[in-house]
Design a protein that fits this description.
Elements (H helix, E strand, L loop, with lengths): L5 H12 L11 H30 L5 E2 L3 E4 L4 E4 L3 E6 L22 E9 L7 E9 L12 H7 L3 E4 L2 E4 L13 E6 L21 E10 L1
Antiparallel strand pairs: 1-4, 2-3, 4-9, 5-6, 5-10, 7-8, 9-10
């Protein structure tokens, strides 16, 4: 899936791999990753005002700011992800349980039957939508340009239990989105189509997006 864990995780993983690089390597890894972190930090800051203005205008009184934070290793600071969301309808059936696989190395992808729509901040006309409802899964065989990290953030839980202890995941809500749930989420561009945008859907580069999901069934 494209950008499943986004720029934050990508930078962290690649940066950690460089700790084992040959000491004689002359490349300025610290400088390069400091530059990347500054770029992400600047992008989040520049989109923050636009996102909050959209929330004030279009979200209801139940708008919630995501408080999950990422740490910039080289800038020595933490930042919020810049995401806001609104639970439009709570779940009507909480029986489904999001799980890790048997080896506890990854999540089990359910199949959702859901309606969704995605729009830019500048237009209420969806750039993607399914207003009737179809089955979707995020497994590799079905990955395409539709699925972004925003899907994972919106639908999956914030934590999983491993050996009785909570481990952090990237979702917004405690239990994940279940049958009957309807959620609206606004994300900075790094969780959508980033600096490349998506020309086939007229999504410009560095565009925050608004996602709305309504789960009809989950299994």
């Amino acid at each position: 899936m494209k950008n499943l864990f986004g720029l934050f995780a990508a930078v962290a993983i690649i940066a950690s791999s460089f700790t084992s690089c040959n000491k004689s390597d002359d490349f300025d890894y610290v400088g390069e990753f400091t530059k990347q972190e500054k770029s992400i930090d600047s992008l989040l800051s520049s989109q923050k005002t636009k996102i909050e203005e959209y929330v004030d205008t279009h979200f209801g009184t139940n708008a919630i700011e995501d408080t999950t934070k990422y740490r910039f290793q080289y800038l020595n600071k933490t930042v919020k992800r810049g995401i806001w969301y609104e639970i439009i309808n709570p779940a009507t059936d909480n029986s489904y349980e999001y799980k890790l696989n048997s080896a506890q190395t990854g999540v089990v992808y359910p199949t959702w039957k859901l309606k969704y729509k995605v729009n830019l901040l500048t237009s209420e006309t969806p750039v993607f939508s399914d207003l009737e409802g179809s089955n979707y899964t995020l497994s590799g065989s079905n990955a395409n340009s539709l699925f972004t990290e925003a899907w994972v953030i919106s639908l999956f839980p914030a934590k999983y239990k491993v050996n009785g202890q909570d481990i952090n995941y990237i979702g917004l809500t405690k239990d994940g989105i279940k049958k009957g749930s309807k959620i609206r989420v606004i994300v900075p561009s790094i969780y959508a189509y980033g600096a490349q945008g998506l020309s086939s859907k007229n999504i410009p580069a560095n565009s925050p997006l608004v996602y709305e999901f309504e789960v009809l069934e989950i299994q």
